[in-house]
Design goal:
The chain is an alpha+beta fold. The chain contains 18 helices and 21 strands. Helix content is 36%, strand content 22%.
């Protein structure tokens, strides 16, 4: 009886062990199936992650050059230290070692090294070569050094707002660096290597290398010497007249190439973070203002083109005129006078300009202003361009046409106004300005950028008539200080009171002085605008003809010689 019971117990044990064995076998089979089939891709990825590593090989960013090959932006190679926390053996020890070399807080480094959820973390970017060598000598597990490209600007503040700058990741943030990012950036490469459990590269293993594609060089239309002279003259003007800012644009009136786009104050590209971000703007295309008397060029050209006045027509002008509910006066004249159309521009007569505008009427005047490109962007290949403000004639109060005639109730950028003046210099054609001349590709081929064709705005006859009037402004009128020896210069002065900060009325103590023109008269090759914002000086000495015209003269004289036009 006892034996039978023992046998039964033994059989139960055998059955139990057999079932347990079967269950264990099933679990093993299940695990094998899971590893080999169900979760094979996950385990494969984990294994590859542990045994393989991927190093990014930064592409070299393309250069930015001026029209003569002067380097304005280049890339230098610097070292960056990073870590893979999964391979860190002692976060405490390694953090202490790195902090001594990098002059960083040990606890901050340790916190990064302890985060094993990450396979990559920057310790410090763009360190010195000496620091990189010291770190390499320590041979710390999970700590790596790689090359990174750092942007450097050899000319410091020259054309800073045009060139722009890059961020820590070498991406363009402003200017040409941003606008032409896809050309300059290039494509990063990769180096995929096989490692042992200690993170060391396995000798003789199959490593994959994907070569980086370097960025392309961007060649500007800017002439660095003209840009430099323009910036220096503006700097002097701001100092001499205690002005808020000064702006100058130098342009080829025939094809739209911009030789200089200068402003002061500016900033140093290599230390841009130390400056007010407002200075990053290219003021020649972003600063808007009421142009004042320089706008009379557009007024008279429009009236001549539409046969509303004649070039030799005589006007009987009083010292003031009522337009709607606004009385417009001459600045100095208190008596009646007779002026021809040419003399209205030569002596910058407000009453004459209003009379000319009234001859066109609101709709025709509005259409003409639009054709000259006001109220819309010029399309220059730079970010941050403003369109200015120019309202539809259907909502104009009766006084608006009088205000527009003398350059008020409209806001423009310096480049907009210069582009419009180039219509006069360019036999009636409107051109689109540009600052990039060509893209030099890695295979030494050159890609010339395509820009819109010029468009006829006024007839050649009208352009020549206004051009002659602008010549008389410089030779006999308000722009005499823009005269250059042995060169016939065409131009127009402008002095505009600034709108009060509350937007109502104008301030007598705050003005914008400007001068716009081109040369030589017979075959214009260079057009320039100079704007000085809120210059200060003795009464009746701060005008476009006294402040801005001499700056225009200096920049024009240098530019003519630099481009071998004289």
């Amino acid at each position: 009886m006892i034996r039978e019971n023992n046998n039964k117990i033994n059989r139960k044990r055998i059955y139990f062990l057999f079932i347990l064995f079967i269950l264990a076998f099933i679990v093993i089979i299940y695990k094998l199936i899971s590893i080999q089939y169900t979760y094979s891709s996950k385990y494969r990825e984990d294994a590859e992650f542990q045994h393989m590593d991927e190093f990014v090989i930064n592409s070299k960013r393309g250069k930015i050059l001026d029209r003569n090959g002067v380097e304005l932006a280049v890339s230098l190679v610097e070292k960056t230290v990073y870590a893979n926390p999964k391979f860190i053996i002692s976060p405490e020890y390694e953090a202490k070692a790195l902090s001594g070399i990098l002059d960083l807080d040990k606890d901050i480094i340790k916190e990064k090294l302890e985060n094993e959820e990450l396979g990559f973390v920057y310790i410090q970017r763009k360190i010195s070569t000496e620091q990189a060598e010291l770190i390499n000598e320590l041979n710390l597990p999970g700590i790596y050094i790689q090359n990174e490209s750092k942007r450097y600007y050899p000319q410091n503040d020259l054309a800073a707002s045009i060139i722009g700058f890059t961020g820590i990741d070498n991406n363009g943030l402003s200017g040409i660096e941003l606008q032409y990012e896809k050309f300059l950036r290039g494509v990063d490469g990769k180096f995929i290597i096989e490692k042992d459990v200690f993170g060391n590269i396995i000798p003789g293993s199959k490593n994959n290398y994907i070569e980086p594609v370097n960025g392309e060089d961007v060649v500007l239309t800017i002439d660095s010497q003209i840009q430099y002279i323009a910036q220096e003259k503006l700097k002097e003007a701001v100092a001499d007249y205690n002005a808020l800012r000064a702006i100058a644009v130098v342009m080829n009136p025939v094809n739209g190439e911009v030789y200089a786009l200068a402003s002061y104050p500016g900033f140093d590209l290599n230390n841009y973070q130390d400056y007010d971000p407002q200075l990053y703007k290219t003021t020649g295309i972003s600063y808007t203002y009421e142009p004042g008397s320089t706008f009379k060029i557009i007024n008279i050209a429009s009236a001549l083109e539409n046969n509303c006045v004649g070039s030799n027509q005589i006007f009987y002008l009083r010292p003031s005129i009522l337009v709607g509910d606004r009385v417009i006066k001459e600045i100095f004249r208190t008596y009646n006078i007779e002026y021809s159309t040419e003399e209205i521009l030569k002596y910058s007569s407000n009453i004459g300009a209003v009379t000319v505008a009234l001859s066109m009427g609101k709709e025709l005047f509005w259409e003409s202003i639009r054709e000259f490109g006001f109220g819309e962007q010029t399309g220059i290949d730079l970010p941050g361009e403003e369109a200015g403000l120019f309202s539809d004639y259907k909502v104009w109060p009766e006084s608006t046409i009088g205000a527009l005639a003398i350059g008020q109730n409209i806001s423009v950028t310096p480049l907009q106004l210069l582009r419009a003046a180039c219509v006069i210099a360019n036999d009636g054609y409107l051109v689109n300005p540009n600052v990039v001349y060509e893209i030099r590709q890695q295979n030494d081929s050159i890609e010339f950028l395509q820009f819109s064709e010029k468009v006829r705005i006024i007839s050649e006859e009208t352009a020549n008539e206004v051009k002659y009037m602008m010549l008389s402004v410089v030779e006999e009128g308000t722009g005499k200080r823009a005269q250059i020896e042995n060169v016939q210069v065409c131009g127009k002065t402008g002095t505009a009171e600034k709108v009060n900060e509350n937007g109502v009325g104008y301030s007598e103590g705050r003005s914008i002085t400007s001068f716009i023109g081109f040369a030589p008269y017979e075959n214009p090759k260079i057009a320039i605008i100079v704007v000085v914002d809120e210059p200060h000086g003795k009464k009746n000495e701060v005008w476009g003809g006294t402040v801005a015209a001499p700056i225009f003269k200096d920049i024009m004289n240098f530019s003519l010689k630099r481009l071998k036009i004289l």
